[in-house]
Write a structure and sequence with these properties.
The structure is a homodimer.
Chain A: H1 16-21, H2 24-30, E1 38-41, E2 48-54, E3 59-65, H3 82-93, E4 104-108, E5 113-117, E6 123-124, H4 125-130, H5 138-151, H6 160-170, H7 174-185, H8 203-210, H9 213-228, E7 232-234, E8 243-245, E9 250-252, E10 259-261, H10 263-280, H11 292-320, H12 336-367, H13 373-376, H14 381-400, H15 408-421
Antiparallel strand pairs in A: 1-2, 2-3, 3-5, 4-5, 6-8, 7-10, 8-9
Helix pairs in contact in A: 5-10, 5-11, 10-11, 10-12, 10-14, 11-12, 11-15, 12-14, 14-15
Chain lengths: 427, 427
């Protein structure tokens, strides 16, 4: 049976050039003859196909959502609708985060496929951090990015109707939000076949955490907040694997988990993954580099990230606060101090959310379904377990003693202190 | 030009019987011949037509949304879509609030018209409170009602997908939410042609409040929360004019402002209007009743309302907590104390929200667009202004010193104390 032209089909190196040749701008960008274009499939994730297409004049990246879980095959179906939400997210934030996302040339709704800028020579930030490389701009860029992307999709910037339309639209991204709800906020805190951890080294630590009622209650409160506190459009998965970098340039990719939610969820994803990387560093040490200097650099990045976010968010609020939340018409010249104080308090609440969500993200990467290569690449299980146990100890402290963390300094002081205090347990 | 049968037309005593005669169950309920049914239009609100239709066997109430503001006429158009959301709200909460809303016999989508139970001999609670009548059950009923209606539309009760579908649906009720956003959270705090207050007696008090930066910042924070903290489906206008009562029976009506929002918004509407009534009582005193005993009864109702809500909400959570927020699978027998403590903290946050939203509701009824007859019926302007000033003083305290109000006792102590302290200002 013939399919309608443009109907869903799985892309491959045979049919992709014809598709791209039909897009005038993409064809011009690639240059030369379509039959000479080189197509490579480079996807390494669980869900999507990713192609690099190179022509005589340039190259593009093509990402297609499969209608099933790639790692499992067609027997595990999953709607490719996430590509729609990824594109909707890019479209919503693009006017505000110029230069910090890839250029999108074309979204093909029936193919659930995005043709976008090929980022080169960028690499995934996580890989750079594991390798001990320094990126002068990334922490400031991503702080700036989160401030812009969330401020301009919040009620602080626009009449509320705009956010409400966005909420209605992204409410359709339930399949991906379900993954977050289960894998971040529930499974890690209970027995589940989807969980794993470094065993047997971490068995006692994990069991202990899963019996820690106050910790679980705190994590559950953040889970409740994730579902209810719809402050802005969030990326939903803003870890160091969703950021591509060069020495100078930073780009946010893969927003398929996008939804309306708490701003602290994106902040916590980035921060939590920086901290996971910090705790993983002893596992990547070599004879001539114990990585302690690099750890100090990582903590500086945590500070830079938060301060960049805070500064940009407050500056945007001061200049573009034209929304229905804290309406400008209510406040006159005499109210400057009160308004400034209210804005600071609001940003303080985002800081507290960042730490709580960050802690949840750390925990789920150590004793949940999806782990991070920062730890996975540490071959020696005892070393890896030690790193992971120290990261868990910080996450527990963040969730159960939030009042010890009033400022970014409190966090920066605590990270190495917790590492020094947390000794491997007897088994 | 002929209209399609069922197309929108404004109902009247001529065309309404034919419509109802076509509804088999309604026809049977009314009894007798349609030409003998008596039809009276009794609506006294700003927006809708309300008919009572009486037959030989019974009676019904018919409410139709007009496509313009009734008080202004067709020159001020307004979508009748609110009737759809009113019906959607009743449909969503009906399974959980049995007996506390009117029975809905029929919703006619093209006519934006609801045929429902005629409540008789019920009167509007606000009228009863002004008259100094006591209703033994209403505070407990409404506390119970808010607990049931909000718990069962929150993420505590069901998988999150259900609330998310509801959020997407009620996001369409923007025209009415716009009214709340402007009239509750913005206009009262600034100069606006829509505002009015008892003048000149209250001029200084109102001007002073509009210069109070910390108060405005606190009100704005609740406005921001109203738009972002989508905990549950809320009625959106749950004041004493939206409740009909007999000595024994209580019914919630008029949920056309329904939306997803903070649970405290409904709690605050009821509480705030009880408190407005308390402060209005000196204006309704007579030679043989200074209303001080009735004021004590009102404050008992505030306590009963909160305790009924709290008790029911926690009981529902314990028995029906099957949602994605605080997932039951995370918590074992050993976590009972931690979970109990987390639930208490959550309910404490609803208490704080109730006071803040209640204060916003009080302020808007005294210096905003829409006033309450509790005050409006006090003919002597000086007396009225004194009552209003004392109510404003409490609202200011609630917003600017929330930490003075940790429990319902703190509130009940403060209400008469503030009244005693607040002396009329010199003009």
């Amino acid at each position: 049976m013939e399919r309608a032209p443009g109907a869903y089909r799985i892309l491959n190196s045979e049919n992709l050039p014809a598709l791209l040749a039909g897009m005038e701008d993409v064809r011009a960008l690639l240059g030369g003859r379509p039959e000479d274009w080189r197509v490579r499939e480079v996807g390494d994730g669980n869900l999507n196909l990713v192609f690099i297409v190179e022509g005589a004049g340039g190259s593009v990246c093509v990402k297609q959502a499969l209608p099933y879980v790639r790692a499992a095959g067609p027997s595990w179906p999953m709607s490719p609708q996430r590509a729609f939400f990824e594109n909707a997210y890019f479209t919503a934030v693009a006017p505000h985060v110029d230069g910090l996302i890839p250029r999108v040339y074309r979204y093909e709704p029936l193919l659930y496929c995005t043709v976008m800028e090929r980022l080169s020579p960028h690499i995934i930030l996580r890989q750079g951090l594991i390798a001990g490389r320094r990126y002068a701009n990334v922490a400031r860029d991503i702080g700036d990015y989160v401030a812009r992307a969330t401020f301009f999709t919040s009620d602080l910037a626009w009449p509320f109707e705009r956010k409400m339309d966005g909420i209605a639209l992204f409410a359709g991204n339930k399949a991906l939000i379900r993954i977050t709800v289960d894998l971040v906020f529930a499974d890690p805190y209970r027995q589940s076949e989807r969980n794993r951890h470094t065993s047997p080294q971490l068995d006692a630590v994990v069991a202990d955490l899963r019996r820690d009622g106050p910790l679980k209650a705190a994590a559950a409160r953040f889970g409740q907040k994730f579902l209810s506190d719809l402050q802005a459009l969030v990326h939903g998965d803003l870890h160091s694997g969703s950021i591509m970098v060069t020495e100078q340039d930073s780009r946010v990719i893969d927003p398929e988990f996008a939804c309306y939610g708490p701003i602290g969820f994106d902040l916590g994803a980035f921060l939590g993954n920086l901290l996971l990387n910090w705790y993983s560093q002893p596992g990547h040490a070599s004879a001539d580099d114990d990585r302690s200097a690099y750890q100090r650099w990582i903590l500086e990045q945590a500070r830079t990230f938060w301060e960049a976010f805070r500064g940009r968010f407050l500056a945007l609020w001061a200049e573009h606060g034209k929304g229905d939340a804290f309406p400008a018409a209510m406040f006159g010249a005499g109210d400057a101090a009160a308004l400034q104080s209210a804005r600071s308090e609001f940003v303080d609440s985002l800081f507290a959310d960042m730490l709580g969500f960050g802690a949840c993200k750390m925990i789920r990467r150590i004793q949940g379904f999806a782990h991070v290569i920062d730890f996975e690449q540490i071959r020696d299980a005892d070393t890896r377990a030690g790193c992971e146990a120290r990261a868990l100890a910080l996450a527990r402290l963040l969730l159960t003693h939030p009042r010890q963390f009033r400022s970014i300094d409190d966090l920066i002081d605590a990270v190495p202190r917790v590492a020094a205090e947390e000794r491997p347990r007897k088994r």
